[in-house]
Amino acid sequence: MTRVLARLDGVVRRFGSITALDGAQLELRAGEVHGVLGENGAGKSTLLNVLGGLVRPDSGTVSIEGVPVTIANPRDAWTHGVGLVHQHFKLVPRLTVTENLTLSIRTAHTGWRLPLADVKERARALMASTGLDFPLDADVEDLGVGDRQRVEILKALLRGPRVLVLDEPTAVLAPPEVEPLFELLRKLADEGRSVVLVAHNLEEILSIADRVTVLREGRSVLTAERREVTATGLAAAMVGRDAAVPSRVAESTSVSNETGGSPIVASCASAHVLGPRGEVALEDVDLEIRRGEIVGVAGVAGNGQRELARLFSGRTAPIRGAVDLPPRIGFIPQDRIEEGLALDLDLAENVALHEHRMTDSRLLDWTEIRASTERIVQDFDVRTPDTYTLARALSGGNQQKLVVGREIRAAGDLLVAENPTRGLDVVATGFVRALLPELVAAPDGPGVLLVSTDLNEVIELSDRIFTAVRGRLIEIPADARTRDSIGSVMLAGTV
């Protein structure tokens, strides 16, 4: 029988009036990739945070190789061979990558001097064997989300964990980057580790997992071998009813709204934009976005798409060239924690942040803001007791739904959306993907700039598609809008 490395049994955890876990169970075996699925707020992250020492259960047991243990903090988890790669990064932005890696493995025995040279040597060896690639001497605050994700994975691997838990690791990766990651996870499992993968993309889970567990309302409702389940069956288990599963887009599929005669709502001409380290991240870019159209941009992280989103959302200005933006812009950022929410404010106060930007008055109508927040909560199915709940108390997916709802409401002329379905479950993903075309199709609907690492999403929703390659935008011809063709352009830089 396959050795069980870790088991969580009957785990209960409450946060005030919210029951996040209600008797959840999870068994992790050596040599397997185990997929964990569930709706937003189902308890996935909380359950794995119990295993990782970030959350203490109210009741239930945690066992490591058959021995009940108490995991009171992350150091206990590391001692028991559990490494956790968080959905929200646990990095110190102002320190370098090497300094962050060193802090993650520092103990009382290392003394005051940090072993930076030793860690850098070990990191380079791991990077060579795993295919992870990022600058070790760069400040973390200068890295894109994709590189930060890779730093988190390497940070966990430096401790040599027997159980490696990854919470939504592919959410910020472009399609060409997902396959090497999955090859790494399979290699780690084949070495005898247990690899736990939390994801909302059912196709990804089915392509890599040996077994799956589904959580619903804090309970484990299904554990099965991969061969025993289908995407439709998993979606039904997640939501407790039949659910539409966003399917892989047909290779020739693309949207066409015939917007060629619509007015231009935003544009840039010969735009040069600097990146976080002062380098030229966008070079001589021309782009027009018309009312009623969705312009999709795909690309491997670090090729300028983040700077493009910040340019069109008004967060940065070109050092050369021109940009023309409308007054009413909604912006769904790539990182809801860093750029989208104030975690220690309640939901209505977070909605008010955008209201404050949009009004000339110093006074806010809190009655209307509370009512608007209630509508967002209802329309976007944000799971919360009330609008007075702190944003910090929501699950990652429900935080994302709040940001999406707020920014869509604000986007009278232009919506800039970076990975808008990141962290959303299968039902919420389908809802947002259906909503964007409806949004632009409405009378006086805005234009949308969609920057996404989900290539299916870009192909499905976009009227025009571009790839960002080394700071340039390359338009994809209508007859080349396939995953393979676009992926090739991402890597090669030519159509």
Describe the structure.
With 495 residues, the chain is an alpha/beta fold. It has 2 domains: 4-239, Rossmann fold, CATH 3.40.50; 264-492, P-loop containing nucleotide triphosphate hydrolases (Rossmann fold). It has helices spanning 44-51, 74-79, 97-105, 116-130, 145-157, 175-190, 202-208, 231-239, 305-312, 336-340, 347-358, 366-379, 396-410, 426-441, 455-461, 483-492, and strands spanning 4-15, 18-29, 32-38, 59-64, 67-69, 82-85, 163-167, 194-198, 211-216, 219-225, 264-274, 280-290, 294-298, 320-324, 329-332, 414-418, 447-451, 464-469, 472-475. The chain has a 6-stranded mixed β-sheet, with helices on both faces. A 6-stranded mixed β-sheet has the order 15-16-17-13-18-19, with helices on both faces. Helix 6 links the parallel strand 7 and strand 8 (194-198). Helix 3 (97-105) packs across helix 4 (116-130) and helix 3 packs parallel to helix 5 (145-157). The longest helix has 16 residues, at 175-190.
